[in-house]
Design brief:
The protein is of the alpha/beta class. It has three domains: 2-73 and 104-181 and 283-359, FAD/NAD(P)-binding domain (3-Layer(bba) Sandwich), CATH 3.50.50.60; 183-280, D-Amino Acid Oxidase, subunit A, domain 2 (D-Amino Acid Oxidase, Chain A, domain 2); 361-410, no CATH class. It is 39% helix and 24% strand. It is built from 14 helices and 18 strands. The chain has helices spanning 13-24, 49-58, 60-68, 111-123, 171-175, 237-243, 247-257, 259-264, 311-331, 336-364, 367-379, 381-392, 394-399, 403-410; strands at 2-9, 29-32, 46-48, 74-75, 78-82, 88-92, 106-108, 128-131, 138-142, 145-149, 156-164, 186-195, 206-209, 218-223, 228-236, 269-280, 289-290, 293-295. The longest helix is centred in the last third of the chain and has 29 residues, at 336-364. The chain is globular and about 65 Å long. The termini are far apart. The chain binds flavin-adenine dinucleotide. Flavin-adenine dinucleotide is lined by residues 9-15, 32-35, 41-46, 48, 135-136, 165-167, 189, 191, 232, 277, 279, 297-299, 303, 308-312, 314.
Length: 415
């Protein structure tokens, strides 16, 4: 058995970012993943500005290298919303944006490429020991940390800090940390790759279709390089269960029958299969740490309940975990009480956002309200500008929960 200070289980965006942050803090770690990269991950492939910002904070050169590889990503400048009454509202991320000169606001990049690129970043660092193709099946609490091993014990490590980043189906989260799946705070989604979808926005806006047929879920179309698109459908799990809704047939039916979509997908070719996976949402507060361990990303149920965005939060929580790990070693304290500072910090940076997104998720489940807002937005530039600001400005998001805020906008007043 090998003894080490920190072992991270899972080298997706959360685990890889944690390892990179630790590396830049001069703290060596072991990073282990059951897959051999490049590996696929079922996802919408949208990488938010938040993810890019946090990676840049770890080291600006990381995003410089990503931006230099133009074959891997589509730059995204806004969102095209389609309401249940089929009204189209296009909202740029930034009012008056200029794709040639502005800092990029977001990307769509196939996870097989993005995650592999991030693992390549890990491989550039000489203080991260990366193990691929090893599935961690055993966790044993010891006096000084956790003993972690695979089935045949060829990997057998005792770590003072265990960072759990092994995604939505984390066995540790469920069986050791007690995070149960709660269908009201969980979503299911399917995605497929298509080629030759027509009618995409010239500046690569991502598309969210809140169609009445799938309310309260939504369908997405995200542009990828080379004429490809990531197309998917997601819905909260309690609604899926109640209706016994089949997301795969729901998606194909819509693409074949919905008047606008049918036209746009008439010559589109499905690449591979339609596949699905779960999204543990951050709309319910969970305990994310304990004696000698922290849960990050999907393993900590940290996906945004409105947008389904989890990559940025996985990266963000990983950076917070790395910083806390540094303090644990400084103070030589790995107790649950000390580790609780991780929960406090995650709540401070993501808590309000999750709360607001959850309230907005509930609002979006009312088709009449979405139709009403879409109708108003179609005639009111001020509303579109306000929604643009909601992406980047938390204060505007907070204000959006107050009905008076919307009243002022509808009357054309400044907010
Ligand atoms: C259909 C769908 C669409 C989505 N769309 C988006 C989107 O467009 N944008 C967005 O930001 N988020 C999206 N999400 C959410 C996003 O995919 C996740 O939030 C994100 O992948 C979380 O990163 P992570 O590092 O926590 O976990 P993961 O990316 O799941 O990585 C976990 C890693 O752990 C490894 N692992 C698992 N078990 C073990 C084990 N026993 N031993 C060792 N290693 C193990 C896996 O191989 C994997 O590499 C979507 C999710 C789904 C399902």
């Amino acid at each position: 058995m090998k003894k080490t200070d920190i072992c991270i289980v899972g080298a997706g965006p959360g685990g890889a970012a944690t390892a990179l942050k630790l590396s830049h803090l001069n703290i060596p770690c072991i990073l282990v993943d059951k897959a051999i990269f490049p590996r696929d991950k079922i996802c919408g492939d949208a990488i938010s500005g938040k993810a890019a910002t946090i990676l840049r904070r770890i080291d600006p050169a990381i995003m410089e290298r990503f931006n230099a590889d133009l074959s891997m990503q589509t730059d995204i400048w806004g969102i095209r919303f389609v309401s249940p009454n089929n009204r189209v509202v296009e909202v740029p991320y930034r009012v008056g944006y200029n794709p040639k000169t502005d800092e990029k606001q977001g990307y769509v990049s196939k996870r097989i490429d993005f995650d592999n690129w991030l693992v390549d970043e890990v491989k550039r660092r000489d203080n991260i020991e990366l193990h691929e193709g090893i599935s961690i099946d055993n966790y044993e609490k010891t006096e000084s940390g956790y003993r972690i091993s695979n089935k045949d014990q060829s990997f057998d490590v005792e770590a003072r800090i265990l960072i759990v980043a092994n995604g939505a189906n984390s066995n540790f989260s469920r069986h050791h940390a007690g995070l149960e799946k709660d269908e009201k705070h969980h979503a299911g989604a399917v995605r497929a790759y298509y080629r030759n979808v027509t009618g995409m926005h010239p500046d690569g806006f991502i598309e969210l279709h809140f169609l009445k047929e799938i309310n309260p879920g939504y369908l997405w179309i995200f542009p990828l390089p080379g004429g490809y698109a990531n197309v998917g459908l997601g819905m909260r799990t309690d609604y899926i269960s109640k209706r016994r809704y089949n997301l795969k047939t729901g998606l194909t039916d819509l693409l074949e029958r919905h008047p606008e979509l049918r036209e746009r997908f008439k010559n589109a070719e499905l690449q591979g299969k339609i596949t699905g996976y779960g999204l543990p949402l951050g709309s319910k507060k969970r305990q994310l740490s304990g004696d000698h361990f922290m849960l990050i990303g999907d393993a900590g149920h940290l996906i945004d309940p409105l947008s389904g965005e989890g990559i940025g939060n996985a990266i963000y929580s990983g950076v917070i975990a790395a910083e806390l790990a540094q303090q644990c070693f400084e103070k030589n304290d790995f107790s649950a009480k000390f580790m609780e500072a991780y929960d406090v910090r995650v709540a401070r940076v993501l808590g309000k956002e999750m709360e607001i997104s959850y309230r907005l998720q509930q609002m979006m489940a009312r088709p009449w309200l979405v139709n009403f807002l879409a109708n108003v937005a179609a005639r009111n530039r001020g509303l579109i500008d306000t929604i643009s600001k909601m992406y980047t400005d938390m204060d505007v998001r907070k204000k959006a929960l107050n009905p008076l805020f919307w009243g002022k906008i509808l009357m054309g007043k400044k907010v």
